[in-house]
Amino acid sequence: MPDAPADLASLLDRARGCAVLIVGDVMLDHFVIGGVERISPEAPVPVVRFDHEEYRLGGAANVAHNVAALGGRVAIAGLVGSDEPATRLLAELTRVGIDTASLVTDPARCTTRKLRVVTTRNQQVARIDYECDGEISGELEQLMVAKVRDAASRAGVVLVSDYQKGVVTARVAQAAIDAARARGIPSLVDPKVPHIDYYRGASLVTPNHHEAEAVTLLRIRRAEDAREAAHRFRERARCDSVLITRGEHGMWLLGPDGEFDLPAEAREVSDVTGAGDTVIAAIALGLGAAGTLQDAARLANRAAGIAVSRFGPAAISAEELRAALA
After folding, report:
1. Burial class (CB in 10 A: 0-12, 13-18, 19+), 96
2. How many CA atoms lie within 13 A of 262 on its CB side?
3. How many domains does the chain have?
């Protein structure tokens, strides 16, 4: 029997102040926005007349922003360079109330930045990625492990946001998962396929349907396909539970209390960028508030319905989600 909106609203209320540690690849999303009226005479590309630019938190930083906006208390462990994007990223994280004490600076790397050239009608023209995505090692990796273990001691949920930009190594991932297990708190992972062996012992892994297909070698077209893929994914990843996000088809949850097909919330889709960040942020808070995994997934499903109606990465506030539940 689906939860009544009042039940989910109560769960959201209980989540306020829950302490969540985010471990992963922080990014800065940079949007250059302008109008297009003609094609360049130099090449068959649109000429974008600059209008304005925007900066948003991206990657693991967007997950942290979503947790904070939904009422959680957030600390983040990750890596930045010694550059202007890092200064901007740290300032924005601080502005929205996120604890940055566990961020590590590596002057040898650049801060990950995604520059998107976008028209005023929200059509993406080009994307340029500034990144150093080699896995950290040696003293840098050891420092990250120490930061994760220390911050996990003050958390109620540990969440690994893996964008495969070098922070989430096998040692860092296991440090996060093991620290959570030792304290009896949930550990969540938003995964990347090449790192599937890093997540052993996690409470929940949340692949999208493309990632689930790549790991299980199954085509997911129907709910029954998602069910089989979830079982195979759980066996392969050696985690406790699996949530497959399926876009307009909703989500499939394989948890300790059974299996659930959660239909997508009916909303106009503007952009799916960052929707997975919103999903795992809401689940983390739902579990942090002592909700069941099924309750937390239903709360996340509602939040995702709002996120996809926005352009680019977006943080959904507790007030917006509460209004949607009403």
Report:
1. middle
2. 30
3. 1
| First-to-final CA distance of the chain | 18
Q: What is the 3-state secondary structure (H, E, C) of 141-194?
A: HHHHHHHHHHHHCCCCEEEEECCCCCCCCHHHHHHHHHHHHHHCCCEEEECCHH
Is 277 tagged catalytic?
Answer: yes
pLDDT band per the 50, 70, 90 thresholds, residue 294: very high
Distant-in-sequence, close-in-space partners of 121: CB < 8 Å, separation ≥ 6: none
3-class SS of residue 118: strand
Residues 112-150 pLDDT 10s: 999 999 999 889 999 999 999 999 999 999 999 999 999
Closest CA to 155 of 133, 179, 120, 175: 179
Note down the domain range covering 94. 5-325
Tell me the C-alpha to C-alpha distance, in Å, between residue 187 and each of 204, 264, 283: 7, 25, 11
pLDDT (tens digit per residue) in 32-78: 999 999 999 999 999 999 999 999 999 999 999 999 999 999 999 99
- Can you give the pTM of this predicted structure? 0.93
Neighbour-count burial for 37-53, b at 16+ CB within 10 Å, e otherwise: eeeeeeeeebebeeeee
Q: What are phi and psi of 124, to 5 degrees?
A: -80, 125
- Residue 232's contacts (CB-CB under 8 Å, 6 or more residues apart) are 215, 216, 218
Average pLDDT score over residue span 264-293: 81
CA gap 5, 124 in Å, rounded: 36
Cα distance between residue 182 and residue 72, in whole Å: 22
Q: What are the C-alpha distances in Å from 175 to residues 18, 99, 139, 141? A: 21, 19, 15, 11
Quote the CA–CA distance of 307 and 65 in Å, as a whole number: 13
CATH of the domain at 126: 3.40.1190.20
How far apart (Å, rounded) are the C-alpha atoms in residues 84 and 109? 12
Catalytic residue among 106, 225, 240, 277: 277
